[in-house]
Amino acid sequence: MALTRGQVAQLYTPIYDDFMLSTFSEDTQVMPQVYKVIEDSSKDYLMDDLSGLGEWTDATEGGAGGYSTPVQGYVQTLTPAKRWKKLSVSYEAVDQDEYALLSKEDDAKQMGRGARMNIEKKAASILYNGFTVAGPDGQFLFSNAHPKNREETGITYDNLLDGPFSHDNLEAAEKQMSDNFFAPDGVPIEVPENPIILYPPALKGMVMRTLSDRAQDRPGTQNRDINIFAGRYTPIEWKYLNAALGGSDAAWYIIYKSLGFLVFDWQVKPHYTSWIDEDLELYNFKGRMLYDCNARGWRCGFGSTGL
């Protein structure tokens, strides 16, 4: 029994879906290693950096007081947007070649790669634009003037690091982080073990040498001191941070994924749909997804322009 046009299109949809998803995941994505990934069906996902209750105070026997009220934080909103890519196959192509639909395998695979690129580039841009785009508190994501909270704006914190990546600048960064990494209620934030050092490919050599067992150790040199940074950080190279893709070959970042301040919100994951256009006589196939991502606040980490 001959296939109807509707059956022809539906027959190849799951095949194309497999093709697309195979290339979508063929390279290890950095985004899930840096962002907290959630799935939410809301039109808008609101993130509020609500403060804690602060340090405990002294009390006297039979005395009153001791109450505190959390301070509302700066709200960041994620609004998942639709991204898609389409391809079409004409009736004539199928009439003249029974393998015409299957020959679109490469197009479907390229769709998967394009979807992965869109996600990785969008997620990376939140960081490399963090030196020029304001965050929820009105300051750039990486700034030396972040207000403590909505009510105590006279106290500020600094997560903008200085200089190119190096052993000395990393040591200075640790002092700066200790002096500035506080929650909205003023309680110091405990730095998680193995924070991420995120960097573009151009900095790979410097990062690997700086974090090796012996800092800057090279054959034939006398600098063979034990490196205090060895094993302390998780280095992650991200090609989507580099200058060729809109970022910078010099900027570097220290990111705390486990604190959950970088959030990626999946509303609809990549998938395929298909339909037939009888008027134009086309089999149409479409890959689509809906997502958004952003930083909930500056406490996602620290960053330097590398200058």
Structure description:
- By secondary structure, the protein is of the alpha+beta class.
- The protein has one domain (5-51, 72-304).
- α1 crosses α4 (105-128).
- The protein starts with a helix and ends with a strand.
- It has helices at residues 5-24, 31-34, 91-96, 105-128, 167-180, 204-210, and strands spanning 36-39, 45-48, 75-78, 81-90, 146-147, 156-157, 196-199, 234-237, 252-255, 262-277, 282-295, 301-304.
- The strands form 4 sheets. It has a 4-stranded mixed β-sheet.
Provide mean pLDDT, rounded. 84
Oligomer description: single chain
Helix content: 10-25%
- Rg calc: 25 Å
Instruction: Find the count of extended strands (DSSP E, 2+ residues).
Output: 12
Query: What structural class do the secondary elements suggest?
Result: alpha+beta
Measured by DSSP, the beta-strand proportion falls in: 15-25%
Number of domains: 1
Unreliable segments (pLDDT under 50, ≥5 consecutive)? Answer: none
What order do the helices and strands follow? HHEEEEHHEEHEHEEEEE
Termini separation (Å)? 70 Å
For the largest beta-sheet, the strand count, sense and barrel status come to: 4 strands, mixed
Q: With helices defined by DSSP (H or I, 4 residues minimum), what is the helix count?
A: 6
* Overall outline: globular
Strand order of the largest sheet: 1-10-11-4
